[in-house]
Amino acid sequence: MTYHSFSEKHSIPTLFTAGFRFYFLAAGAFALFAMVAWLFWLGVHAAGGSFAEPWTAVAPQLWHAHEMVYGYTVAVVAGFFLTAVPNWTGSPPARAMFVAGTGFVWIAGRLVIWFSAFLDPVFVALVDLAFVPLLGLKVGGNLLKKTQARNLIFLGLLSLLFAGNLLMHLEWMGVSGGDAMAGVRLGLLTTVAMIAIIGGRVVPGFTRNALNRSGYGGKLPVLRPVFDRIGIVSAILLALAAGLDAPSAVVGGLAAIAAISNGIRFAGWRFQATWREPILWSMHLAFFLLVAGYAALATSHFFGDPSEIGALHLLGVGAAGGMTLAIMTRAALGHTGRPLVVSTPIAVAYAAIALAAIVRACGPTLLPEHYYAVMFVSGGLWLTAFTLFLVVYLPVLAFSGDEKASN
């Protein structure tokens, strides 16, 4: 670990000098821990065992869902916003004290959920719910000073993430109106709505820049503003509808609109020209899985096949997992002054995440008699991806580099 001095008496660990450093590394480490814990529980269950004294008051499947959305994904969101918003607004980056302090709050949230069997559920809720408002106040303060109006939508989406987490905790506290599964759906679909927005900006933009630099002579990515708006609005409305437990026809219809409109957007981004550059095709692949996940969710609500759980995993593992990994690996390079070229192990990690999503979404339907084997294969692919990420990016994130904006 290297340190940045700011006085003769104090020094700052590099890990806390930028939001992306701490939160991307924390997210990667937690992605491993959370999946190992989930697979361990599945293994015990498959063997016919049980835990005499569970450490968490939350049902294991809900712990898994909650921590993947409100633990792992929210950490990546924090790292992204604490890095991107200062670039958008020209404001100073978050101070190390803020990064370390909010990092402590995020870790505390993970701990109280993990040990919730021994804690008061109100205390658990207060600790775990504190993180997103702290992040929102910081992000909102910068956005309200100087930003394009379109970026203010992210404050609303952070509010939806808070609301989804609150729904889960209300059920765990036994409060009327709480609905843990609605909270999972709201949080996950809000996350992928962020991908519909941010992916729609960065995927064609980064692709265009890279193709121009390479001297590519073919067609460049094109934007379709009407479908951009439809794709984003339908994605947000879908998150709201699912969180409010709207009728299946409404949820399915919004998912179908989101799939079609975002598919039309994606079709113009020249995916076929990116196959030589994993740092580009990883983002394209994640956005494609977003479209496929919306389509699967629509057919699930209209026809009952595939299962809703399968469709949500295609969105959660494939779109959210794939895009967060792609963004973390790219942003870490760009903001530490390194060339925007990923190594072969990271390209393998991108492919492993996509395969994990497909296996988890389709495997239980195609091989119902091998359910646990499917779970372990998918989980193993996830673990492979994030082990590779940590091995390659620990020195990038934890040690000094020349921080600057990426493009």
TrEMBL record:
A Pfam family recorded for this sequence: NnrS
InterPro entries in alphabetical order: NnrS
Transmembrane segments: 20-41, 69-89, 96-116, 122-140, 152-170, 182-206, 226-244, 250-267, 279-303, 309-328, 340-359, 371-399
Keywords of this entry: Membrane, Transmembrane, Transmembrane helix
The keyword Coiled coil is assigned to this record: no
Domain of life: Bacteria
Name assigned to this protein: NnrS family protein
Source organism of this protein record: Stappia sediminis
